[in-house]
Q: What sequence folds into this?
């Protein structure tokens, strides 16, 4: 569960000026920056932390995932070079959102982190296309039956709606929406909402 009050974030990037710039943007948007690091050194303290914003690299990704195990911290990766390997590794690791440096602005940074806190899918459209290709080629993901309620929730996730918005649109409680999303992820053998949207799109169910 996300902590009450302003969302908390730890910022990791190899460039100090980038870290400071992101921190300034987020603090102006009422985020609480709990700390910063380069390649996860010093090691972030994730207890009670809402978001770990880190710079993607193979070893850094694996370490971030390990640190987040057993915590409710959500992972957001910034990516300097977006290629097929990066997309596969990031999505398969269960990262909640991706921010390409080429399109990173104060507005996209703030909007993406707010979306992640609210439980929305936060993946750029071109990256979602690559993800769809990746899951299409994954042989372990077979046809799965989804009930009408699950399909409705998935359609709204695909539209970029967050948990609260879906609950209001479908007149469900937020807890119900979260339970439905959990069931969908289990049925589709997915770790993230973005991955579930791509799989459902591939199977033609939304």
A:
């Amino acid at each position: 569960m996300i902590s009450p009050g302003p969302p908390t974030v730890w910022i990791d990037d190899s460039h100090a000026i980038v870290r400071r710039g992101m921190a300034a943007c987020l603090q102006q948007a009422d985020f609480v920056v709990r700390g910063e690091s380069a390649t996860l050194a010093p090691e972030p303290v994730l207890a009670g932390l809402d978001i770990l914003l880190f710079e993607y690299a193979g070893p850094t990704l694996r370490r971030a995932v390990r640190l987040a195990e057993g915590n409710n911290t959500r992972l957001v990766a910034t990516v300097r070079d977006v290629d097929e390997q990066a997309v596969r590794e990031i999505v398969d690791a269960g990262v909640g959102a991706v921010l390409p440096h080429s399109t990173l602005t104060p507005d996209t940074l703030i909007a993406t982190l707010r979306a992640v806190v609210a439980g929305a899918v936060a993946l750029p459209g071109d990256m979602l296309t690559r993800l769809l290709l990746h899951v299409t080629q994954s042989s372990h993901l077979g046809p799965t039956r989804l009930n009408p309620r699950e399909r409705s929730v998935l359609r709204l996730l695909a539209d970029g709606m967050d948990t609260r918005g879906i609950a209001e649109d479908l007149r469900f409680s937020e807890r119900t929406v979260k339970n439905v999303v959990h069931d969908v992820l289990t049925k589709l053998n997915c770790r993230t909402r973005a991955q579930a949207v791509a799989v459902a799109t591939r199977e033609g169910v939304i």
The first strand starts at residue 8 and ends at 12. The beta strands are 8-12, 32-37, 51-55, 74-79, 97-100. The radius of gyration is 17 Å. Residues 139-143 have pLDDT under 50 and may be disordered.
